[in-house]
Amino acid sequence: MSDLTALLQQALALHQAGDLRPAAELYRQVLEKQPQHFDALHLLGVIARQNGEAQAAVELIRQALAIDASQAVAHCNLGAALQDLGQPEAALASYERAICLKPDYAMALQNRGNALRILGRVDAALLSYDAALAILPDYPEAFYHRGLCYQALGQSQAALDDYQQALQLRARYPQALCASGVALHSLQHYEAAIAEYENALRLQPDYAEAWCNRGSALHKLQEYEAALDSYQHALEIRPDYAKAHEYCGNVWCALEQPQQAIAAYQQALACGGDASQLDYLLATLGVGATPVTAPSAYVRQLFDQYAGHFDQHLQTVLGYQLPALLDAAITRQRPAQQLATLDAGCGTGLCGPYLRPYSHSLSGVDLSEKMLEQAAQTSLYDELTCAELSVYLMKQPARFDLIMAADVLVYIGDLAALFAAAKLALRSGGLFAFSVEQGSATQSEDFYLQASHRYAHSGTYVQRLAHQHGFSIAEMQAAIARQDQGADIDSWVVVLKASQY
């Protein structure tokens, strides 16, 4: 027994010093003498995980727990190995068991938060990180991971505060530095974001995500050549980095180099990038068939990232006029009584102040959760729903007197399904008010995808669909909806009236 103890102590010393191979050999020698030795099995499993052998780690730690299931640390380490294997539910169960055995186990609480965050249970994850920090206030990993939760919720300032707390506790923490850059980027502090990415890269020069994020911030500053250089660094580290290829494509588009953009998007496809999104981007460059609608994930991501500064950008940069234009058209056509109204694609709620005065009920629907969070803060809506518009409308038969869609149909090419759903959701005589961007006089299609990644529709197509789906045209006026890079965007402002049943 004394020989086993000496072997184990020697193995532990090597393990703690980072000498994993000789430590593992000594643990195996212990197991040759005593195959049911808990510590040797458990710690050999820990080394397996450190070596990236997660399945072997799970098997070894489970053998140890079969000998003694009362060891909280082993349950926690089993959870970490299961998480490495992409099994967050099983990992969560192991963390829960560890916490049950040792309620003040800060690491298990922190790891439990990670599993919950991966499972999308962000509010529960925050509570778990809070519990870990209540026990161990100087816990940099808990601050960092809690910051990731806040970032996922769109609370970039809270996320940034947590990353800075983590960095105060551990200055050499490249993941927290990179995440700090992401939060600063979300807050539109692009120069500061670049500085944080560069701080991360000084500590970890092969950090592909930091190079890619740095390129994205440089793109925002219109430093296109520097952005391409940053993406190239990321691709030298990870040649199959689909996002970096896609972002190169975005820069080439900004530089009006369509052939290079096409090559980059195709390379992103070859590396396993999101096919629906990349096919959509390629279609804007004339490659492949035109999709009938923008991918939901693309629209959701686009507006999630704009949620915090969407209103300011539209109103002060783009001169956005559609809410007022549509309100004026609706006012000319609506009946005197209060209406049951749907703000379709409500975003942050810019149309809410126009719709609320003549609506006894005001509902909003949007694909972006983060946009809806902003809309909720206006207190103008009786109901807010995150859903795809046509799917939502098909579940609301004869519910609304008015459906308004400002700058929404530009992300839908084929409008037939939407018109049918809107007709179903409107009461007899109800109004469907919306805007579309006007098609070019040189284009003969009903709709086509523009380089701006938005659809344009011909006036005759809108008129034909209206009649096909049981609407009369109450009003259809040409208008300038907004500007894009200093150019006026010509649109149609349309009010349709549902026929009597």
Structure characterization notes:
The structure is a single chain. The protein is α/β, with parallel strands linked by helices and 501 residues long. Among the domains are: 205-289, Serine Threonine Protein Phosphatase 5, Tetratricopeptide repeat (Alpha Horseshoe); 301-498, 3-Layer(aba) Sandwich (Rossmann fold). Helix content is 59%, strand content 14%. The protein contains 25 helices and 9 strands. It has helices at 2-16, 20-33, 38-50, 54-67, 72-84, 88-101, 106-118, 122-135, 140-152, 156-169, 174-186, 190-203, 208-220, 224-237, 242-254, 258-270, 275-284, 296-306, 310-317, 322-333, 352-355, 369-376, 389-394, 416-425, 459-468, and strands at residues 339-344, 359-366, 383-386, 400-405, 426-438, 447-449, 455-457, 471-484, 487-498. Strands 1, 2, 3, 4, 5, 6, 7, 8 and 9 form a 9-stranded mixed sheet that branches. Strand 2, helix 22 (369-376) and strand 3 (383-386) form a beta-alpha-beta unit. Helix 9 (140-152) packs parallel to helix 11 (174-186) and helix 13 (208-220) runs parallel beside helix 15 (242-254). The mean pLDDT is 93.
